[in-house]
Hints:
The protein is of the alpha/beta class. Helices cover about 40% and strands about 15% of the residues. The protein has helices at about 10-20, 40-50, 60-70, 120-125, 145-155, 175-180, 195-200, 215, 230-245, 245-265, 265-280; strands spanning about 5, 25-30, 55-60, 80, 105-110, 135-140, 165-170, 180-185, 205-210, 225.
Amino acid sequence: TQVVISFLVGANIKCCLAHMAYPKFRLVVSERNCNTLMLPHDRFRFALFRSQADAVVCNSFAQTAFVSRHCPGLRLKLETIPNFVDSDKFAPSPERRSRADGEPMVLVIVARMRPRKNAIRFIRAVADPSLGNIHVDWYGSTRSCNYSRRCVKLVKRLGIEDRFSIHQARFEAAPVYRSGDAFCLPSFYEGTPNALAEALSSGLPAICSDVSDNARYVIPGRNGFLFNPHSRKSIVKALRRLLELDSEALADYGRQSLAIAADNFSKELFLKRYVDLLRGLDGGQNR
Length: 287
């Protein structure tokens, strides 16, 4: 059986249209974003999927739930296959950073500085006097972005320039993860964030907003902490809990992150999931 696997919205639609003209091949389309609203173009896309696709692969459980909720006719075609991480590239540093007594904990964030990433509230939380021993390195600023400029001004106005550094996005993220003691992602919504998967594979404890798929991979008391992204107090509380970890506990959290990444984001698991899906299609099971 010939199978076409398409990625991204434009390619998915084109393949669905091609399938109308030549319906003999199996079609697997992919949902790579995490929707929060059902818009007209989403309804159009999902209607095409329902009539033309043999399977719809979402790369997050949150998106699978969204599609299932808003388009029940697709439920039997849905599969969830998160992205994989190159564990050779994203791995703990051979020479793990060791904090000296009294040295600030370095918290790294790899995310575009956009409103959905919740930077404004997070900056206000980090300014709390009880968090003076945390230094945040946020990689993802864009000079042309008004929101990024607002964040830079807020950091200066709150007087925390020595504790909150905003950097341009880096093409190579692996060294960024290795430079930190822990990883953070304060977003209002996510799917399965690539940055979180990469950070866990790099052996970092994680502190994230309790949204979408994050709770599947960040387990409080095991490899990190979760917080309500709409509550400054909740963010501050989670950061305090992170600060309370001694070096031994922090290292153990990092080892747990590495194990969680291996269980969920390995290339082998990704390929197995796709192979199992394709074998099911080859068996003639119309979904």
